[in-house]
Write a structure and sequence with these properties.
The complex is a heterodimer of chains A (163) and B (579).
Chain A (H helix, E strand, L loop, with lengths): L1 E9 L4 H11 L6 E6 L5 E9 L2 H13 L3 E6 L5 E12 L3 H12 L3 E5 L3 E8 L1 H10 L5 E6 L3 E4 L8
Antiparallel strand pairs in A: 1-3, 1-4, 2-3, 5-7, 5-8, 5-9, 6-7
Chain B lengths: L2 E4 H11 L4 E4 L6 H8 L5 E4 L3 H15 L3 E5 L3 H4 L2 H9 L4 E7 L15 H5 L5 E4 L6 H13 L5 E7 H5 L1 E4 L18 H12 L4 E5 L1 H5 L3 H11 L3 E3 L14 E4 L6 H9 L2 E5 L5 H4 L10 E6 L13 E4 L2 H14 L11 H11 L14 H11 L5 E4 L3 H9 L8 E2 L10 H11 L5 E6 H4 L5 H7 L5 E6 L4 H10 L15 H7 L3 E5 L2 H13 L5 E6 L36
Parallel strand pairs in B: 2-3, 2-4, 4-5, 5-7, 6-7, 9-10, 9-12, 10-11, 12-13, 13-14, 15-16, 15-17, 17-18, 18-20, 19-20
Antiparallel strand pairs in B: 1-8
Helix pairs in contact in B: 1-2, 1-7, 3-5, 3-18, 9-14, 11-14, 12-15, 16-17, 16-23
The chains are: A alpha+beta (163), B alpha/beta (579).
Chain lengths: 163, 579
């Protein structure tokens, strides 16, 4: 099953490679991984999407916790949560096609953030599935470039991962 | 205000303040400032090894024998890479160690400089943690953190990579008394509710087993384990790493379990109804086939490392905490409950165990003129009253040492259990002998393992380390040969040792005493003679039976009840013809 693991870790050189190294050394999957410093610049927040059986996910959490740079973590699947991903898509946008892309972007509540005579660059935020849906809706031949950040997430309500 | 010192001096002061007696090391370009600082002080003693791998194993042996962290100092590049095997060895067996590696100057890092290697990157998967010092002001605190992380929780090796310029830079020195790390807070106290549940389950068992391991040794919890086992009157078995924590001579002890464990220990595991696992990690060499592991048992597991719990075997009552703390709490509860210990004379479970015991699975042919390796170990055990420090290399001799030496005290049995590092024995024995100059320290080895770190015989001469090397020379990589005999139709592919040196002459050329023993009748006298040479290193080249195999044996992937016994103990054996 797919799990979203949120991690607070020391913002130290090498902390990211400790996490990445753990996953490759123990043959765990990483679907996506995002990381950036928090409001406290000494800490980073990482969101890691992985999959595996309950036992594997339990081991992943324990092994992550064992890393000296990891301060705290939580499995967002265990709480009500929101997940978001940002995608930038560069598409061909010439002739009739130009209107169609624009309409699609509106339907998906995305934004066109860069325009040339022949291209649009679209920004879309949402769940991974929503992003997938836009890509499916766009003509495959029209897509020039796709950039996705990977999932980031946060718990709903009072629940929070902080010190 | 602290005094202003260069980084190299800060490092030495910090080691002294940390109470470090010995640093095992080898100099080189990146650590020359540090070696200069070593020259100018005499608090921390430096032991010059002959290869950096030897430094790590020596520090490791010192740590295993004393419980104090071992310290290594090496240069950048090859100095650091030569340490990787030793670091991984310590990591697998949870040994506290601090490895200080030189690094090229900060401004050259990433430039493929001379003797540059990304040592933090290379060692990352086989350390508990590692650091690169980026500012001389952080040096003392980093050393403090390194020792803190290495020695607390589940211990392990910590690498500190120090660029050369840092050791020349100047800063004020003061060594912190304590260290607080928000991201590292190991749990030591077990959960009282879990402990109570575990004790209730234990006291209700009809066929209980106690399975204890290296965690008991590491946590100095032998006393608590002995009390616990006696209060309950239950049978106990130990892992390879746990030997000595419970006296081998005690009747409740079923000795070692696992691939080469005793019949009674493995059968007991297979049929028990409650298993308490104490400071163990359910290694594959212990569990055999996980599908068939303790099929009828409720399992309690005490470990300081939460990640060890339910990693390989799902347990019913997990208890995260230090073994000494949890066992002390359990002992209180058992005493308070006035529990009657299981009666070894009358109880049906003990009766069953004694039937298994009666098979006497450790028999071997005692009538031969050619030396049986088991006999050498038995004699050594007898002559040293099971009280010597024994290091070993890896292979058949290691298993025979574990099976036939009667370890009655913890920290006497020093071997590379997890990583299985050939070459470990001699340098580890150096570390032990330095820690305990007046004790008998023996390295049980084989002719294949022995030559993997043979250069350290020079170190032994330089520092007057009178270790006794008992090399069981069967002219084969015995364990490889055994597997080839059992599982590869006796195709002995590259497991023979051709072109062996004259070990007696070799020992003598290094300035030591060499002895060759070729007949069973001479073994005892030769061992006595060697042990009596209190101030000389003796290398005993003992020519043993080439065909001998380690029994009992559970083949990889089989269950505890599928042991193969030796032909002498009633097993089928194989008809063997070597070369």
């Amino acid at each position: 099953m797919r799990h979203i693991i949120s991690i607070l870790l020391e913002n130290e050189a090498g902390a990211l490679s400790r996490v990445a190294g753990l996953f490759s050394a123990r043959a765990y999957n990483i679907e996506s991984l995002t990381v950036a410093p928090t409001e406290d610049p000494t800490m980073s927040r990482m969101t890691l999407v992985t999959n595996g059986s309950d036992a594997t996910i339990e081991q992943i959490q324990k092994q992550l916790n064992k890393l000296v740079d990891v301060i705290k973590l939580t499995d967002l699947n265990e709480v009500r949560h929101i997940e978001r991903e940002l995608m930038l898509v560069k598409t061909k946008a010439a002739g009739d096609f130009r209107e169609e892309v624009k309409r699609l972007v509106e339907i998906f509540r995305g934004r066109i953030i860069d325009v040339t005579d022949a291209t649009y660059t679209i920004e879309l935020t949402g769940s991974g599935k929503k992003l997938d849906a836009l890509l499916e809706a766009l003509d495959e031949k029209a897509i020039i470039e796709v950039v996705r950040t990977g999932i980031t997430g946060i718990a709903r309500g009072e629940n929070a991962l902080h010190l | 205000m602290g005094e202003k010192l260069r980084g190299a001096e800060i490092l030495l002061k910090a080691l002294a303040d940390e109470g470090v007696e010995y640093v095992f090391g080898y100099p080189g370009g990146a650590v020359l400032h540090i070696y200069d600082a070593i020259f100018k002080q005499d608090t921390v003693k430096h032991i010059l090894v002959r290869h950096e791998q030897g430094a790590t194993h020596a520090a490791d042996g010192y740590a295993r024998a004393t419980g104090k962290p071992g310290v290594v100092l090496v240069t950048s590049g090859p100095g650091a890479t030569n340490c990787v095997t030793g670091i991984a060895t310590a990591h697998m067996d949870s040994i506290p160690m601090v490895v200080l590696t030189g690094q090229v100057p900060s401004h050259l890092i990433g430039n493929d400089a001379f003797q540059e290697v990304d040592n933090v990157g290379i060692t990352r998967p086989c350390v508990k943690h590692n650091f690169m010092v980026e500012d001389v002001k952080d040096l003392a605190m980093t050393i403090k953190k390194a020792f803190h992380v290495a020695t607390t929780g589940r211990p392990g090796p910590v690498v500190v990579d120090i660029p050369k310029d840092i050791t020349a830079d100047v800063a004020e020195y003061s060594y912190p008394d304590s260290v607080e790390m928000r991201s590292y807070k190991p749990v030591t106290k077990g959960h009282p509710g879990q402990i109570r549940r575990a004790v209730e389950l234990l006291m209700s068992a009809r066929k209980p087993m106690i399975y204890s391991g290296g965690g008991v040794v590491i946590d100095n919890a032998a006393e608590q384990l002995i009390e616990f086992t006696r209060l309950l009157g239950y049978p106990i078995t130990q892992t390879l790493m746990g030997l000595g924590a419970y006296p081998a001579s005690d009747p409740q002890n079923l000795q070692m379990l696992g691939m080469h464990g005793t019949y009674e220990a493995n059968m007991g595991m297979h049929q028990c109804d409650v298993l308490i696992a104490i400071g163990v990690r359910f290694d594959d060499r212990v569990t055999g086939n996980l599908e068939q592991f303790c099929p009828n048992a409720k399992i309690i597991h005490i470990d300081i490392d939460p990640a060890s719990i339910s990693k390989n075997v799902a347990v019913d009552i997990p208890i995260v905490g230090s073994v000494s703390n949890v066992l002390s709490e359990m002992n209180k509860l058992i005493r308070a409950s006035q529990f009657d210990p299981m009666d070894m004379e009358k109880d049906a479970w003990w009766e069953q165990i004694n039937q298994w015991r009666a098979i006497d699975c450790m028999q071997y042919d005692r009538s031969t003129d050619v030396i049986k390796p088991q006999y050498v170990i038995e004699e050594l055990s007898r002559l040293t009253n099971g009280d010597a420090y024994i290091t070993s290399d890896v292979g058949q001799h290691q298993m025979w040492a574990a099976q036939y030496y009667q370890f009655n005290k913890p920290r006497r049995w020093i071997n590379s259990g997890g990583l299985g590092t050939m070459g470990f024995g001699v340098p580890a024995a150096m570390g032990v002998q330095l820690a305990y100059p007046d004790e008998t320290v023996c390295c049980i080895s084989g002719e294949a393992s022995l030559v993997m770190c043979i250069q350290e015989l020079s170190t032994c001469l330089q520092y007057g380390l009178p270790i006794k090397i008992i090399s069981l020379n069967n002219r084969y990589m015995g364990m490889v040969r055994q597997w080839q005999e059992f599982f590869y139709d006796r195709r002995y592919s590259h497991s023979y040792m051709d072109a062996l040196p004259d070990f007696v002459a070799l020992a003598e050329s290094f300035g030591h005493v060499g002895m060759r023993v070729e007949k069973t009748a001479d073994v005892s006298a030769a061992l006595k003679e060697a042990l009596a040479m209190k101030d000389r290193l003796v290398l005993m080249d003992i020519v043993t039976d080439q065909t001998e195999n380690v029994y009992p044996m559970i083949a990889a992937g089989k269950g505890h009840n599928e042991m193969e016994l030796s032909p002498v103990s009633g097993g089928p054996g194989t008809d063997r013809e070597l070369s």
